[in-house]
Amino acid sequence: MSRTEIKPDKSKIRLRKLDQGTERFADKSAYEKRLKALQEEMLHIQQTYWHEKRRAVLVFEGWDAAGKGGAIRRITEQLDPRGFHVWPISAPTAAEQGKHYLWRFWQRLPEPGTFAIFDRSWYGRVLVERIEGFAKPKEWKRSYDEINEFERLLIDDGARIVKLFFHITEEEQLSRFRERLTNPYKRWKLTEEDLRNRARWDNYVGAAEDMFDKTSTLAVPWHAIAANSKWHARVASLEIITQALRRDVNIAPPPVDPAVIDAAAEMLGVHFSGLKEA
User: Fold this and answer.
1) How many domains does the chain have?
2) Whole-structure pTM over 0.85, yes or no?
3) Burial 72-81, CB ≥16 within 10 A → b, else e
């Protein structure tokens, strides 16, 4: 197999230009109808990936309280739990700090037939590590090429990668932070670091847009989702993921194993024509 050429995706993503717009769904029933259809399609895709031993990597980045976790929950809600793993990524452990920053992500890549879902990812190198000074300028600047090469290796090995960035406005984030503070069942989601990061909003916008410019490629583009509306963000993420994962993939149910047909006839007295009718 030839090496995938890393060509930049020249469509510029500028977060402040994203259209947060009005709600796309007239009511909750319309939202749930579309969500249910996409969840069913996602299940069919998962079954195909399992049977064909394909692999998928889903990357979720975005602002604190932007709805990444809620979207992941809706994406996986109808899936077989044996076929995916969600990796919530936080600061590296002491052992991981002594290794190249990509090492811990190599350990979490999906087995054949499964999905790996990253709630934050290796892009922390050029986001939080850059802004908070955990990585030196020479380190995070070279990381763009390292990340592109890392993703090229995965693609050339047969993996499908989808990268999503959830964007909300400063005002919407403030509203969600206040909701978390007043809701005793959501307070655990809010940390001192979340509040402190708001003071560096513009720095994070600049870092994110540099990330888009340098790591959004034709092979693995970034998708920025206007996430002020949770309904829109959940459906949009599923639409992007299902479209990417089913591209050039036949998700029709696989044929029945001939050995199963013979065994069913012998042991159950059930013949294939009966199975087809059922």
Assistant:
1) 1
2) yes
3) bebbbeebee
Identify whether 270 is part of a domain.
no
Full residue range of the structural domain in which residue 105 is found: 15-247
Which tens digit of pLDDT belongs to each residue from 134-152? 999 999 999 999 999 999 9
- Is 131 inside any structural domain? yes
Question: What are the Cα distances from residue 30, in Å, to 35, 37, 113, 231, 236?
Answer: 9, 11, 32, 10, 14
Q: How many CB atoms lie within 10 A of CB 97?
A: 11
Token pair in block for residue 149: 């090469």
Does a structural domain hold residue 5? no
H/E/C letters for each residue in 14-76?
Answer: CHHHCCCCCCCCCCHHHHHHHHHHHHHHHHHHHHHHHHHCCEEEEEEEECCCCCHHHHHHHHH
The per-residue pLDDT for range 257-273, each reduced to its tens digit, is 888 888 888 898 888 76
Domain of 87, CATH number, reads 3.40.50.300
Q: How far apart are the C-alpha atoms of 213 and 31, rounded to whole Å?
A: 32
Residues 6+ apart with CB under 8 A from 273: none
3-state helix vs strand vs coil in the chain, percent to 5: 55, 10, 35
Domain membership of residue 10 (yes or no) is: no
Tell me the torsion sign for CA atoms 102, 108, 112, 113. negative
